Structure formats: C-alpha cells, structure tokens
C-alpha cells in the first residue's frame, strides 16, 4: 500500500495523463484519418477519370506507356482486370494491395462506379469501367499512404510524447509544493503530541489547504489554553486540598497530647470537622461541575414563578444577611418561566451569597427582574469590593478568586461561579458581570422564555 500522499498524487496524475494521452491519440488518429479519407475520395475519383480518358484517347500501347511513367504513381496504385480476373498493375513494387473480389470486378465491368466507404484499411479504393482496344476492363485505383500522412502522424505522436514528459515534470514540481503544507502539519502534530505548542506553520496558501492550516492553528491555540487550564486546575486542586489536609493533620497530632485541656481539645475537633466539611463541599462542587460540563445532567423542566423563587432564596439565606444588617431592594415583576427549578435555585443562592459576602455591613443589595419578548433578565447589584477588568474575564473559571488577598477573609473555593456559568449555559442563557474595583458589582443573568430542548 502506498502511504505517501506525494507518491499518490504523482502516480494518480501520471495514470490520468497517460490514459488521457492514449485515448486522445486514438481519437485524434481516428478523426484525422476519417477526415483525410473523406478529402482524398474526390482527388481519387478525378485521377481515375483522367486514366479512363487516357485509354479512350490513345492507343492501348501508348496509354500503357504513358500511365506507367506517371509521377502520380507515387501516391496511387493501379490494377486493370480483364473478365478472367487477370490484371496488370502500375505503381510501387512490394505494395500490398486491397483485395478485390470477382463480384466487385463484374460490377465494374458492367459499368458501375465502385467506391466503398467502410473499409478497415488505411487505403481508399475506386473501381471504374475502362474501354480499350482489347475490350472492356475493370480498373481499380487505390491510394497509397502519402508521406504527408505519415509525417503528420509522427508529428502528433511526438507532440503527445513531449506533452506527457513536460506534464510529468511539472506535476512532480507542483506536487512538492502541494504536499509541503501537509508535511508541515504532520511535523506540527508530532510536536503538539509531545507537548510543544509553540509551533509556527507559516502556511500562506488559500483554498482547502489554507482553511485546514487556519483550523489547525485554532485547534493548537485551543489545546494550548486547555493545557494551561489543566495545569492551573491541578495546581488549584492541590492547593485547595493541601490546606485543609494540613490543618486536619496538624490538629490531629495536637489531639494526641495528654495534657490538652478539654476546651482546647473540642476546639481542635471543631476545626478538623470544619476542614473535613470544606473538603467534602469542594468534592461535591467538583462532581457537580463535572456533571454539568459533560451535559449528563438532564434538565427537569417545570413551570414556576421566577420572582417567587428568588424571594424564597433570599428568605432561605436570611442568617447570612441579617447578621450584618444588609437589606434588599427588590423590583421583581411576576414572571412565569419554564426551567429546571433546583438548578436555578442554586444559581440565585450562589450569586446572592457572593453579593452578601463581599458587601459592606449596613449596605443594600438591589435585585431586579425584567422581561421582553424572548428573554427574562435578572440583575443583582451590590456595593462590595468590586472586580478589576482583568479579573472579570476569569471569574467564571473554576478555583479562580478575584482577589487572592481576601481569600481567607471571605472563604470559598472559587467553584460557585463556574457552576453558575454552566447552569446558565445549559439553559441556553447568558451571564455577564459589570464592575469596578471599590464600586460594587452587578451580575446580569439572561434566560430564554422558551425552555431549551433537551
């Protein structure tokens, strides 16, 4: 099996050119000879009629002598048959004449002009009645292959041969340029497979190969981003897991001290339990996000009042905001939505929880709900620490925390907004952030009125 695409292209072209050349040769030869015969029938007839006039005008001996010395015998071959089938010939020696039957001789002797059109031979044949002193005879004149025909045929053969050679050389060179981008793609693929994403193709071609090169570069860029995200994910998971494990290990060792007071022992146990719960929540969040991203989480679509759902979430998290004297300014118009109730409830819990977490004490959080023809828009605005423009592009990534310096103060693993983003995406919706550092943050969630098909 031929594996090289270069060899395949070359062999395919050569086979096509050779096959086409052979077919063209046969067609051209057939058409050329057919036209040539058609054009030579009239001169053949005129030549035969001239021979008849010679024999009618001159005595037999003089006519035979005149005909035998004619220069046209280089192109014509003459046979004069008597009634018995015996003949006298004039023309080139060694010529293989076209066979003539007695039936054809009798037709010509009877006065019929014999000129067949369908002959499987290169020569043309003409039969005319000839009246001489010795009686009526049948004259058959046939054409010989003229030198011009042979020369033209050789010219056609040479032209086709040179065309084949020149075309083959050109395709060998063209195939090299055709295969070069594919070889670059192959080398780039091997480097990417080895983990090297700093590959420059420099393919300037257009068409299918250019499109393939652009798609390959986009894929390489996406793979590079995925690899970076993978590294960051491993690093973040290791960091988030290592911190509670260190605390659990350290306080567990401390519990082994014999002289430890009961109050201190209970405090250590509470810390161990809290860290274990934090690891459990992080594990649950990872599993939840994995299910959402793999789309194995099927939406349980029901019809419900979205404004009532948001009110219920605010009431459910009352301990978080009442302890800090945070209030809500609600502008919730009655809106009926077809969506997954539990998943959207988690969205509002996470978003409102973040607004409470990063807001100042005694502040106000605004929640509004509006509807147009196709969508419903939820806006949640707080007066918290805000988010920089650079961090706004990444807040929906898993484990990302907008301000690392506040990570211990505010807690959290950075998984909440990633889960929110995936749930909104599953509902064919959109979520965006509007914020400035120190000026608070507005989260805008847009959901379609018509539920997405599963």
- By CATH's scheme, which homologous superfamily of the largest domain applies? Histidine kinase-like ATPase, C-terminal domain
The radius of gyration is 50 Å
- Roughly what percent helix? 55-70%
Mean pLDDT: 76
SSE-based structural type = alpha+beta
CATH architectural grouping of the largest domain: 2-Layer Sandwich
Number of domains: 3
The CATH class of the largest domain turns out to be: Alpha Beta
Shape: rod-shaped
Order of helices and strands: HHEEHEEHHHEHHEEHEEHHHEE
Biggest sheet layout: 5 strands, mixed
Strand order of the largest sheet: 6-8-9-11-10
% residues in beta strands: 15-25%
Properties at a glance:
five-stranded mixed sheet, single chain, 454 residues, alpha+beta, 3 domains, 12 helices, four-stranded antiparallel sheet, Heat Shock Protein 90, rod-shaped, Beta-Lactamase, 55% helix, Helix Hairpins
